[in-house]
Amino acid sequence: MQGLAPSDIFLFEDFRLDRRGGLFRRDDNGAFVPVAIGSRALDILGVLIERAGEIVSKDDLLAAVWPETVVDYSNLTVQTAALRRVLDRGRSNGSCIQTVSGRGYRFIAPVTRSAVGACSGTPVSAHEHLWVFSRDGVEPSVLPANERSSEPRPSSILSAERRQLTVMICDLVGSTMLSSRLDPEDLREVIAGYHRAVSEIVAGFDGSVGNYMGDIVPVCFGYPRAHEDDAERAVRAGLGVIDAVARVDLKHAKLQTRVDIATGVVVVSEGSAQERSVVGEAPYLAAQLKVLAEPNTVVIAAGTHRLLGGLFEYRDLGAVEVEGAAAPLPAWQVLRPSAIASRFEALRGSALTPLVGRDEEIDLLLRRWTRAKTGDGQVVLISGEPGIGKSRIAAELEGRLHPESHFRLRYSCSPYHQDSALFPFIDQLGRAAGFAPNDPPAARLEKLEGLLARAAQPGEDVAFIADLLSLPASDRYPLPNLSPQRKKERTLEALIRQLEGLARQRPVLMVFEDARWIDPTSRELLDHTIERVRSLSVLLIVTFRPEFQPPWTGQPQVMTLTINRLDRRDRRALVAQIAGGKTFPEEVVDQIVDRTDGVPLFIEELTKSVLESGVPPVGIPTTLHDSLLARLDRLASARLVAQIGAAIGRQFPYGLLLAVSDLPEDELRVGLAGLVASDLVFQRGAPPDAVYSFKHALVQDAAHGSMLRGTREQLHARIAEAIEAHSPTRAVRPTLCRGRARRKICRLLGQGRPEVGRPLGDGGSGSATAKRAGPAGAAAGYP
Ligand SMILES: Nc1ncnc2c1ncn2[C@@H]1O[C@H](COP(=O)(O)OP(=O)(O)OP(=O)(O)O)[C@@H](O)[C@H]1O
Ligand SMILES: [Mg+2]
Question: Which residue among 601, 605, 608 has the greatest number of ligand 1 atoms within 8 angstroms of its CB, and so is best to mutate?
């Protein structure tokens, strides 16, 4: 798809209208801010401007703006009045839209056609997605008028989904000025360089670049693939975009960007014309924030801020009145990633509720600590699913050891630094040395020397570690000239010597978090450390999720501790603790206890959502949404199967699934195998008699909630039909999905129930759904 034609962008007075993109903005002291105006008024303005200086008859305007609809001239009067209110605000010499009595309207202000659009023809690669941003029902003026989908697309599982998305809008600062200053060819080069810079950064964070709208680049995080950290990805990408655009090497100009980010639930539609639309509040909010973002800053809305916790440092911009917004918008400028030691601390904060259960795990760790203190070094590998409490247990141990004299070393692997050698160690050293963001290299070197001196006499090791931290060699400890391989070996040796030096003085608790993101060189260093720890006063704890296969098991000093789900008593205790003094009705506590399957993170977030909303938990808390959907998105082929299964219930039998899905049977089996292999569902028996159950009720809810209302309704009807046809006498209702969906299916089942006792497999209705289940469906018997 090609970008804008040159004639699509018009400049007049302080305004800039991008007709094709539907963007109408005003220059507000150098910042182009969106102007809130209805789409009809914008269309009228477009026609008048296109024919500026000419009289445009009312009939021509009506035909252009309300094609195929008979409307009264009074509509024109209303819309031109709205336009004049916006356009003539600063004018002293009458309106720029002249009424020519009995003949029509004429636009009289001078208009320039910008050449910016010529540059936006940057081809969109196959991996980029074309987005149309809109808001349910209300279409703000910043949206591309002629690309809005006028009709909702048919609700099929494949054509549209409800998702939580983080939307980022990048805006090139001063593009109007550039367009008037530069030759069109140079301008083309500038815009293409800008687009390239944005796309490259966004690709690194797995975001989807939308349809370039000249100097605006919309980006989505969370579709087509969700990640548990989409909001963080967006902000890191935003900070990266600002750097990258500033570095775009152009002889003509130094470029600056503004980046605005908002998160919210949207409907994403896949169009037949390879065009996706995103409808919801997030794109709208991101566009509104534009007014607040200064050049070269990232501004985020409340929804995004909530998901980020302490991962970044912010400047609170307060709640700001924005033209066109219903209420003042709270917003924050993101300054930089925070220096907090771990994701756990950044996301969960330091004010934790008391630990529930886990006595055995803590006892075991304390016993290992006692052994480690005597020089019999120990390694405990803590494994468990996301949110089960691995970091919490490590933090609890740190707390318990607080009164004892020891050194504590904390290392965190990061999904963003899996390719940077020794990142967890570099990061730990920087924090321990107390590097400040603006420290010059000499000051950092001095701090580092002070830190390293605590473990050992300063020597050549300082040079290797300083080099690791990209600090210049000092005169005192020059870096020997070695091959890269030898240099790496000497660096690893220096780091091990540091640990040995500390352990000689006091016992060391070393916590190494999130090993699934470990880089290869850190892995190598950890191999050496685990080997060396045997004869040191060190307890090393390594945490990771089950998908990481630790290579260190089998050694005598190493043990694995798998963290299991909390039992029902502990779940209730955790709910009560998070609720503080508030008492929930028993059935609400039961719901939380049932839906969260003993995962403390889920219990925490569901309880908080009840506290905030004051109603029983419905839907999925925004804080869990990305992480739950990410699990489904990892398996594109299986997601559809999971969605259909979810509409049936926590448990779904093969036969019923086959009956209600349109998928060919072999595809269905492949999808199911994928779900089982990725541990999202358990399987009992083999097809056609197999019964599947979601491992987590919340994953089922996420799959169910990602379907549009219409799709769900269609599925529920099919499910009811299939149940009726094949299992009229079975007590199926209790195993169906919960809440409204279940009530709906039960209601459908109640309507026109067939006579009791019809044999299984005899569809009666003869419908395709019923027939499809065939003997497999009958054999499954829909438990
Ligand atoms: N036993 C517990 N008692 C009270 N709160 C808990 C308990 N276990 C975990 N939590 C809380 O649950 C949340 C998730 O725990 P945590 O971050 O430790 O999980 P994790 O297993 O490290 O997850 P990840 O794999 O994402 O790192 C935290 O807020 C933590 O404080
Ligand atoms: Mg953790």
Answer: 601
